[in-house]
Design a protein that fits this description.
2 copies of one chain form a homodimer. The first copy, chain A, contains 12 helices and 12 strands. With about 350 residues, chain A is α/β, with parallel strands linked by helices. In chain A, strands 2-1-3-4-5-11 form a 6-stranded parallel beta sheet, with helices on both faces. The first copy, chain A, has a 6-stranded mixed beta sheet with strand order 7-6-8-9-10-12, sandwiched between helices. In chain A, helix 11 links the parallel strand 8 and strand 9. In chain A, helix 1 packs across helix 3 and helix 10 runs parallel beside helix 11. The longest helix of chain A is centred in the C-terminal third of the chain and has 18 residues. Chain A is elongated, with a radius of gyration of 25 Å. Chain A binds a DNA duplex (30 and 30 nucleotides) through helix 2 and helix 4.
DNA sequence: AGGAAAACTGAAAACGTTTTCAGTTTTCTG
DNA sequence: CAGAAAACTGAAAACGTTTTCAGTTTTCCT
């Protein structure tokens, strides 16, 4: 059942069928109706491979995601998928690991699947314009703050929160309560730019509160994974350092921290306050409830797709969209003990 | 950069390039090496649209998933994606909501995307052979027990745990400890067959322990969502029923239950024991750690793909693969108070 | 060494679309 | 009503692969 059969059946050329299929304006209404009827009667469905080959593009956008285990990224990812299919596009997801390069993986994905555009989700993105040019398709960076690296802010599209400022805000919440000895729980800064940026926010918030950075209070987990975060927190606690609060750069890591604190008999928030960034669903159900800056994950995904589709349509330059977090007050905050 | 360029560059015909690309045996080792080198040097990536068109198939499999919010399904989904791309296939995911029909959605997906096969993940699957025949491609049911409905067990492929038996086992753990008043926390049984099956396991475990089912101890949440589970648990607790344990049919719901219990001042496990099924990562970090029957989510995804690919390759009938859970002992189990 | 089989190779024809471009109608204008 | 513009249509050439089939080598056997 091909376009040829439809052509024969309805007595017009395949060109005309193609035109009807693609909503070209220059086909008589009467003919269009006839063709549509034929398509209906023959249950014809266009072959998308042939279509893509003819068009030299695919109506497919790719999502390169680093660290799919992360519940927050999952939420964004699903929002992306929903929006993509709402727009009658397809999505392919490509998971990358810690030793893989987002741009290289993205480029190969684009070439092999003939993607129209790309979304980078949850990793690092620090490339030169020349490197970026190799991609050949528009893209949107999602969950990265694009305020660093060798690229100008306007060089590419992004949908993001200001990781630096939000981290600053989180830590300021702690200093405002009177905390001086604030630890920070980080993922590796190798893969994830947010780790670096949020750490910077932490540093500057301390500084602006007149607190000197204590390197002993930096807890760096091997990854963003909750298991790694727990291990890191555990071994930090064993050292018996003096501290009254923890800033966790991600909810999942914060959950691990609560558990680790509990394991060594420290009470949250009496012995240790805790604040995180992300706002994943499950962190509403920790005991006590995690206080966190909630990122609008669904909106982030939806907007990323919108931005990409706009760029594709208008061939316009780029677009930066900054979203805001909202404080979700849980029960992990208290004044430091005297 | 097409196959033609590679042919010219390496001095052989495009046919030979194609053969190398597809691992045909009849190409001299020396030539193969030369071609591979050329491919490498030119950074050539085959055009998958053209490839699909030539082959008349797509090397794409679809995943129809109900309830993507669920962390367990997410884990399976990512395992599927990994295995699919490891096999040089592509995956398209299709999320469906509560008022959508898996088979209908699957069928339309197959037609429009020319899919080679389908995986159904996390919902209900109860169709007649005639309905199934409309699909036209092989498929695997994942996370459904195929021991009910109008179909014979061997009518289609599946990778699953025995939801009934595992639920039985979970509840037996509670009755063995001496619990008599055991509540069950369910998702809706409309969309999700596992809810129904695990509930059956609960009922029969009670019966075999000589306990009469108390309908007042059935907590049915509106969905599998953690928020809905919390609401359901909360309103159940308000009623002040007498019970000493809860069997939660999913980890996420169990986490909600712990929180709800804590909110009304009940201690886990002293006042109420708790056991669940799923074994998602975060449930290792609840306080106390959730005791649960861990489903091998990664394996489940991987195997589902393997089974599907085998069926596709051999055109053989079908294959049922039952996986086992493993008890992860946390701290939510205790003998009932005297 | 000679012939046959086996191993390899490439030209050309698919695959089912879209797109270009050269028509052919129809409609409009004065 | 002639001529030009606009509206429509179709033949044929892409698009980048795979596959078929007819060669051409090489290897093996006597």
């Amino acid at each position: 059942m091909t376009i040829k059969d439809v052509a024969k059946y309805s007595g017009v050329s395949i060109t005309t069928i193609s035109r009807v299929l693609n909503n070209h304006p220059d086909v008589r209404e009467e003919v269009r109706a006839k063709v549509l009827k034929a398509i209906e009667e023959l249950h014809y469905v266009p072959n998308s491979s042939a279509r893509d080959l003819g068009k030299m593009q695919t109506d497919t956008i790719g999502v390169v995601v680093r660290g799919v285990g992360n519940p927050f990224l999952n939420s964004v990812l699903h929002a992306i998928e929903k929006e993509v299919s709402r727009a009658d596009y397809s999505m392919v997801m490509h998971q990358i690991g810690s030793n893989e390069d987002e741009l290289a993986e993205g480029a190969s994905l684009v070439r092999s699947k003939r993607l129209k555009g790309l979304i980078f989700l949850g990793g690092r993105f620090d490339y030169t314009p020349e490197q970026i040019a190799t991609l050949g398709v528009p893209f949107v960076c999602c969950t990265y703050t694009n305020t660093f690296g060798s690229l100008k802010k306007t060089a590419y599209s992004s949908v993001y929160i200001d990781d630096y400022a939000e981290a600053f805000r989180a830590v300021k919440t702690l200093t405002d309560l009177g905390h001086k000895k604030i630890a920070v729980l980080l993922g590796t800064t190798d893969d994830h730019s947010i780790s670096e940026l949020r750490f910077k926010g932490y540093c500057d918030a301390l500084k602006s509160a007149g607190i000197v950075l204590d390197k002993d209070l930096i807890i760096e987990a091997k990854s963003f994974n909750i298991d790694d975060a727990f291990k890191a927190a555990e071994s930090f606690l064993k050292k018996g350092k003096d501290f009254t609060a923890i800033f966790s750069i991600a909810d999942a890591m914060g959950i691990a921290a609560i558990k680790a604190l509990h394991t060594v008999g420290l009470n949250v928030p009496d012995d240790c306050s805790l604040i995180a960034i992300d706002g994943i669903q499950v962190s509403k159900y920790t005991i006590p409830t995690l206080t966190t800056l909630v990122q609008p994950s669904k909106q982030m995904g939806t907007r990323a797709v919108e931005v990409l589709l706009n760029v594709l349509k208008d061939e316009c330059g780029s677009c930066q969209l900054k979203l805001e977090t909202a404080l979700r007050e849980g029960g992990t905050l208290a004044k430091p003990k005297a």
